[in-house]
Amino acid sequence: IESGEHIADVLSRNSLEDMIKLDDQTAIVEFRVPQKWLGHTVDELDLRRHYDINIIGLRKQIKETLNTKFDPDYHFGPDDLVVAVVNRDRFQQIDYLEKL
């Protein structure tokens, strides 16, 4: 059941690459940068305050090593993947990432 739910979570979201549930409220997610973030910095977007997203790393490709030492003035690019700890309730809406 848990595997089926995981696959459904990932497949139902175009931008979501992976989700690992830590508990009933928290998950680690890997997702493609939403269009609205392109060209903006981590600091400008203030994701923790506005969206309850805590970025723990960035990468350009799925298999690439996670970069955990990025600056707050890092500008998001079109190929970026974000790995973050999130409140799962915010990600339950299928189109959540597209609304950011």
Can you describe this structure in just a few lines?
The protein is of the alpha+beta class. It is built from 4 helices and 4 strands; from the N terminus they run αββααββα.
Word description of this protein:
The chain contains 4 helices and 4 strands. It is an alpha+beta fold and 100 residues long. The protein has helices at residues 2-11, 42-45, 47-51, 96-99, and strands at residues 16-21, 26-32, 53-59, 81-87. The protein has a 4-stranded antiparallel β-sheet. Residues 10-14 have low confidence and may be disordered. It is globular.
How many strands appear in the DSSP assignment? 4
Strand order of the largest sheet: 1-2-4-3
Cα-to-Cα separation, first versus last residue: 30 Å
Order of helices and strands: HEEHHEEH
> Could you give a short account of the major beta sheet?
4 strands, antiparallel
